[in-house]
Amino acid sequence: MDSYKSSSFFKLTIRFALVFFVVITIIKIIISMFKNGGISGMVSEYFSAEIWLQFLTIQLVMSLVYGLLMAGYYKFIKK
User: Fold this and answer.
1) What distance in Å separates the CA atoms of residue 5 and residue 55, rounded to the nearest whole number?
2) Is the whole model's pTM more than 0.70, yes or no?
3) Which of 4, 7, 28, 32 could disulfide-link to 42, CB 3.0 to 4.6 Å?
4) How far apart are CA 38 and CA 41, in angstroms?
């Protein structure tokens, strides 16, 4: 736990956000593949011409918020 206290807040935020981004994106893509009947359904739901930017923006914002909250918790609250 001491490694979190000695790391910078920015590095902690990036670390938590990156892990969250990768894991949640993979989970959402896998769920979409099962829900929409394969890769073509997933591509049409998340990666069509108009929607991919919205998908990416939502994922990045969620990851940043999670990273900030977790970094704040481990850096300043957790003893």
Assistant:
1) 33
2) yes
3) 32
4) 6
How far is it, in rounded angstroms, from Cα 53 to Cα 50? 7
DSSP, residue by residue, 6-60: HS-HHHHHHHHHHHHHHHHHHHHHHHHHHHTTSHHHHHHHHSSTTTHHHHHHHHH
CA dist., res. 55 & res. 61, Å (int): 10
pLDDT digits (tens, 9 = 90+) for 34-47: 988 888 888 888 88
pLDDT tens-place string over residues 59-74 = 999 999 999 999 999 8
Q: Can you tell me the distance from the alpha carbon of 51 to that of 68, in angstroms, rounded to the nearest whole number?
A: 26
How many residues would you count in the chain?
79
**62 Rama sector, left if φ>0, alpha if ψ -120 to 50, beta otherwise:** alpha
